[in-house]
Amino acid sequence: MRVGVLSDIHANRVALRAVLGDMPPVDAVVCAGDVVGYNPWPGDCIDALRERSVPTIMGNHDRAVATGTGFSGNGMADAGARYARDVLDESQLAWLQDLPTERRCFDGRLKLVHGHPEDPNRYTYPALFSPELLGAEDVLVMGHTHVQAYEAYDEGVVMNPGSVGQPRDGDPRAAYAVVDLDSLTVDQRRVEYDIERVVEAVAEAGLPEGTGTRLRKGR
Q: Which of 72, 82, 128, 193 is the most exposed place for a label (fewest CB within 10 A)?
């Protein structure tokens, strides 16, 4: 069984469309959270996942929008959360509010968390990957760091597909992955998209300039 793995879309419709267009044939798609935040198309990104019935979990930006809380000390994140709350309709907000903090999919073979199995807000960078993170599942998917990586162990696979909408690993291309649950192999994938279109849309929406310009360097 081949599964497309997304995370940290962050309301970047242009990048999400590029990823979905690039994705090879898969049996299912899952998302490890942060559908919204930062960029100006939160509703479109929610609708794209809802229309495809993509199993999704709640990231910290999803939670901030769903609960009406903000990000003190992070102006770009706070502006993106406030913008999303202003433009999402009731059904889109309800979808965010109903997202769980973790999911087990495909008879428990794959587990989705956002930050860490024990703490959805904890950044788990590749240097912290270990087989101890795995439970009964074959594949643990984490997001949150926006850094694409995976490690294969005797016990299973620990992976982060990277960020669709705001990569932070120095590669500006949209990131995602395809995992084969039978062979326990991971295909890390990147796809170019029209970053300048996003920079323009960020400015048009009145969001902080850096939200768009940071995308040029993948930081």
A: 72
